[in-house]
Amino acid sequence: MTNPSGTVAAEPEPITLDWSKTALVIIDMQRDFMEPGGFGETLGNDVSRLARAVNPIASVLSAARDAGMLVIHTREGHLPDLSDAPPAKVERGAPSLRIGDPGPMGRILIRGEAGHDIIPKLYPRRGEIVIDKPGKGAFYATGFDDILRKHGIENLLVCGVTTEVCVNTTVREANDRGYRCVVIGDGCASYFPEFHEMGLKMIKAQGGIFGWVTESAAVLQALKPQPNRP
Q1: Bridge partner list, 6
Q2: CA dist 125 to 58, 62, 81, Å?
Q3: Any idea what the Cα angle at residue 32 is, between residues 43 and 61, rounded to 5°?
Q4: Which of 49, 82, 97, 155 could form a disulfide with 101 if both were Cys (CB 3.0 to 4.6 A apart)?
């Protein structure tokens, strides 16, 4: 059986996690960010750069499910009437399509549209929690904190996209609320490789000011079932 706790090799130092008090949080692995024709591409980004995170996340997701760990997925997006989308967000920049505009996967970043949904390889199983959020962080205008506290969660294994935006924002919000965050570096990605690198450095700097950074292989090792000892 899986150890009730495990020590994860991480920076700035190893961390021991009680799995019953740990949730895997997979941030915004949505078609609108990951696939051609979605919001990420309308901003002029090379969406293929996010693909590197998919297999590491899939491996940890499988192990977390086998271990009975709480799994939470997030999706950034807005109500069809855009009442939860501030004009400052909708109007910024010069994308080829703005939030709410019709695109090849439905209206851009609108809840219920195909592009808003999670990619098939990481699709939530029945019973897994999905947090629909209107902002970058998972705590803003959601029930995320209440859900974590209801389940007795103290530690978050965090992965997803993009490293410097929604991942970093969620980790910072979680840190302020007292959660210990372990970010899976190869399970995160950015349209800008230098932002990915610096985003991880900011989390683990100054003795882990926002949290710890690890790799998927280290999490899998810590979750590996241990043989029964006589």
Answers
A1: 17
A2: 13, 11, 28
A3: 130
A4: 97
